[in-house]
Amino acid sequence: MRKYIIKRLLLAVIIFFFVMLIIYTVLRCLPSSYVETIAREKSQQPGSKSYQEWLDQLNAMYGLDKGIIPGYIGWLGEFFTGHFGDSWKYTVPVIDKFNEVVWLSFEMGVITMILELIIAIPLGIIAATKQYSKTDYTISILALAFISLPTFFFIALLKLVFCIKIQIPDPATGSMMGLFPLTGLFSRTYNQMTPVQQFFDRAWHLVLPITTLVIISIGGLMRYTRTNMLEVLNADYIRTARAKGLSEKKVIYHHAFRNTLIPLVTIVGGSLPGLFSGALFTETMFSLPGIGYISYNAMISGDIPFSMFYLAFLAILTLLGNLIADILYAVVDPRVRLA
Amino acid sequence: MAKKKQVGYLSAKEARRISKENRKITNEFEKKRKRKNVPESEYLTTMHDPKNAVEFDDLHTYFYTDAGTVKAVDGVSFNVPIGKTVGVVGESGCGKSVTSLSLMQLLQRPQGQVASGEIRLNLGDKAYDVTKAPNSAMQKIRGNVVSMIFQEPMTALNPVFRIGEQIEEVLELHNVDHMTEHQMKERTIELLEMVGIANSEGVYKMFPHELSGGMRQRVVIAMALACNPRVIIADEPTTALDVTIQAQILDLLRNLKDKINSSIMFITHDLGVIAEMADFVVVMYAGRIIERGTAQEIFHHPAHPYTIGLMASKPVVGKDVEKLYSIPGKVPNPINMPNYCYFKDRCEMCVKGCEGAYPKEIKLSETHSVSCYRYYGQKED
User: Fold this and answer.
1) B220 at the A interface (CB within 8 A)?
2) What residues does B118 pair with on adjacent strands?
3) Which of A172, A177, B68, B304 has minimal Cβ neighbours within 10 Å of its Cβ?
């Protein structure tokens, strides 16, 4: 077991090296170069140097005069010694900016994942045990609708209904306002609130974003659970369990469910990076300063240090997530032995 | 050009009509089944002969499929006497397994339903008609009074639970002797030893994938015997096994039967096994019983052309033949069965009467009877 984990970790290092090499190459080749943008701005100031002179000077300053391979090796060295550099766009150390925004996304991700598991797995089991019934069709159609809905469209719908159509009186002023806020993470009066009020204010702002994330994600997991459960329910050992005289409840939730868990573990293990990667559409449309939104802006402005750090972080999480999924696989399925 | 109706082809409209009708029928059955608090009087019955453990009486088990109704078991009646072994033979798909699953009430629902008929099960002081018994009553019977040995040892055990756990589950569920946990473990190990597993303590802690097919089949048998059932249904328990293990398993079943005096309903298509095990033999063909009798009668004086064909297609040691005999043709389509002898098209001994309706059962002796026109003349004798 330990040998297996060490082997997998060493393999992960090699994979990481090549993944980051590809990402670095792509980032260097992006048409939106941060340095070019700055150089153009500087050169247009009155009495300034020419664009080319600025470009050469800035390239040397930001270390972009080197080729891709030496540049990558340099980045790698810095990364492994813990120097993540400064973000070009946000002009603060990368790690500070990251630390500032990632936790909101993480919070949303964790809550979403927990709700997703709590809702989707039981729904999938119910749909499978009542196959071809009205319940099954209802659940399946809803799930399909949720998978197919584009995020931005669904958010617009939610906002229309819950922020515009449904109005409640504001407890403070008495004027009418939406049931949930349109955008943002805090109310204007946040700073004057007590800590308890602040907590609820924040939670109130997060209801719609998290609802969105949960609803668009449960469809897939529910379908997956249903398919697996159906397969397991037709297995011979389920008939054996029934032949023992076990109640239907015990057959489904003890004998069948343990077997359904096996493929589910892979999915859940694989979603570990998803907790940190943020949700670009949702964060953008609700103006939430999460990592999805921030990293997108960093990327379009050609902020190489920030993008590299963010993507390296995700790459590591993906590799770890896969390893964890494989280990969990062996935990839930006795037939799997890691070697 | 006249439109020819293709055989086996269903138009979309027709298929829709069939599945709609099926849903109506099966919903009714399911509704009946799902009622709560069914009074016991509704499924209480009396055995026609108290010496029988099970009496199948005109059993009809149908599958309402989208292609039409499959009459998998169509009017089957036979008895399983207490302490005896009844062999059920027939080729694949003739309804042997469905008959036994009807007794367990483990048919693939909602498509599979017992359409009519009774299955009377002797519980000692009373008798149940299991076709009318609700699920709650069946759960007390399954594994306790009637147990089943399944034919696929490789897949019949749950891969994620340990062997000991899976056997103990039955003991715990029908804990008639009020055993403690420790006693249950002892009993499980005793069961494993009884079915001839040497390393019983070790196997107790193993997972199914760590055992060979023969060992798993023994575990399945141990599980079926855990509560000393009155009736054991052995559904091709040796088909998946090699010959040496087969002989061991058969020995085992025979010894166990004598030990706990239960009845065995032995389903197989291996005539050699039947000859060795069974007291009575029931030959099924396309969902009906075509011949029945004691093992002696069936083996020495087979009457139905199908049984005769079966006997002829069995290799005999010491006899030199160019080519092993096989019955020509194949089983008719189970949907829309014709109303004449189902074997007519394959039969080499047809007589004039064969064009008529399905032949009635004719008694050749006290225990031997056959459904064939060839014996109609003898009826008057």
Assistant:
1) yes
2) B57
3) A172
Q: Where are the alpha helices (DSSP H) in A130-150?
A: 134-148
Residues of chain A with pLDDT under 50: none
Asked, for residue A78, whether it belongs to a domain, the answer is no
Length of chain A: 339
Whole-prediction pTM: 0.81
Closest-CA distance of chain B to residue A236, Å: 5
Is residue A30 assigned to a domain? no
Supply the range of the domain harboring residue A228. 91-332
Collect all residues of chain B within an 8 Å Cβ-Cβ radius of residue A236: 150, 152, 155-156
Identify the burial level of A316 via C-beta atoms within 10 angstroms of its C-beta, where 0-12 means exposed, 13-18 middle and 19 or more buried. middle
**Hey, is the C-beta of B191 within 8 angstroms of any chain A C-beta?**
no
Q: Which chain B residues touch A333 with a CB distance below 8 Å?
A: 159-160
CATH number at residue A111: 1.10.3720.10
Residue pLDDT, tens place only, B14-24: 888 888 888 88
Q: Which residue has the tokens 């034919």?
A: B151
| Count of domains observed in chain A | 1
Instruction: Give tens-digit pLDDT for A119-171.
Output: 999 999 999 988 888 899 999 999 999 889 888 899 999 999 998 888 888 77
Nearest to A168, CA basis, from A182, A158, A180, A178: A178
Residues B289-311 pLDDT 10s: 999 999 999 988 888 888 888 88
A237, A244, A255 ranked by CB distance to B143: nearest: A244
Q: Give ipTM to 2 decimals.
A: 0.85
**Residue A34 counted as domain residue:** no
For B273-290, give the secondary structure using H, E and C. Answer: HHHHHCCEEEEEECCEEE
